[in-house]
Specification:
11 helices; Cytochrome Bc1 Complex, Chain D, domain 2; mainly alpha
């Protein structure tokens, strides 16, 4: 019966391959080419034909393997029941073929232990082997991770890895006024015309997030001594120009001129200590008077 099954599978596979190859050859013949251009190239068509053939082959092998296992189940059961095979790891794998899931579930003895509480009894059953193997793997992984990163210090931790990636990214950014890694050296504008222009730009573009008086709404309060990304004029200028990814602060580069961004920065600094109504609670770090914040 097994030999007939294998012969039938082989015959069916050869017949299917002959039909597919014949169809491919017919499609490639010039006289059989359709008038309308084909949607796929010959290489793509051949790829999908071979992929389909491989899928059919795998299904037939799976079907053949299941058929063999079903037909040989009595013989496999006798082999599994042998004392020299039953308790071995390979024997437990063989048990999966005959319906014994001991390799996955562990030994289920259903023996009641002496522990009893409120009518609840404890059974003396093994933990599932997959759970024990997984637990042992997590212990090995944790020890290996600790030794590799914290004892031997062979790998980079998150902070060092981030710094290295930032240095690599800086190599692809041309140095100059558009380099976000370089800080400008501007001085705050103090002329009334510049402050007035900065106020006008702020009211149009910044007030929806920071409030009409910079008291803070979605964005932070800009009138106190606390700053998330630096309160010195060049840090404020950088924040306005390049924005802050992931925090809702958009980049105004290309939307405002350099002078407008400096005017807005100077206007924002002029609001320090203005104490508007309903200010948003402080965010970030307190700015040290006369010093630029080192954190970018």
């Amino acid at each position: 019966m097994l030999i007939l099954t294998l012969k039938s599978a082989r015959s069916a596979l050869l017949a299917l391959a002959s039909v597919l190859i014949s169809a491919t050859a017919f499609a490639q013949a010039p006289e059989a080419a359709p008038a309308k251009p084909a949607a796929m190239s010959e290489q793509e068509a051949l790829f999908w034909v071979l992929l389909g053939l491989l899928g059919v082959l795998l299904l037939m092998l799976l079907f053949t393997g299941i058929t063999i296992a079903v037909q040989m189940k009595p013989q496999l059961r006798k082999l599994y029941d042998l004392p020299t095979v039953h308790n071995t790891w390979s024997g437990q794998v063989l048990g999966l073929l005959v319906g014994d899931a001991r390799l996955v579930q562990g030994d289920v003895r259903d023996e009641i232990m002496d522990h009893e509480y409120d009518g609840i009894h404890e059974f003396d059953n093994d933990l599932p082997p997959w759970w024990k193997y997984g637990f042992a793997f997590t212990i090995i992984f944790a020890v290996s991770y600790l030794f590799y990163y914290h004892v031997a210090k062979k790998g980079q931790l998150q902070g060092a890895e981030y710094a290295a990636e930032m240095r690599q990214a800086a190599l692809f950014v041309p140095a100059g006024s558009d380099d976000p890694n370089l800080l400008t050296t501007y001085q705050p504008l103090t002329a009334l015309a510049d402050i007035s222009s900065g106020k006008s730009v702020f009211a149009t573009n910044c007030a929806p997030c920071h409030g009409a008086n910079a008291e803070g709404k979605v964005g932070p309060n800009l009138t106190d001594d606390y700053w998330l990304h630096g309160g010195e004029v060049n840090h404020v200028y950088k924040t306005i120009k390049f924005g802050i990814n992931g925090k809702g602060m958009v980049s105004w580069k290309g939307k405002l001129s350099g002078k407008q961004m400096l005017q807005v920065s100077s206007y924002v600094l002029s609001l320090k200590g203005s104490k508007p109504a309903n200010p948003k609670p402080p965010q970030g770090e307190k700015e040290v008077a006369g010093k630029a914040v080192a954190k970018l």
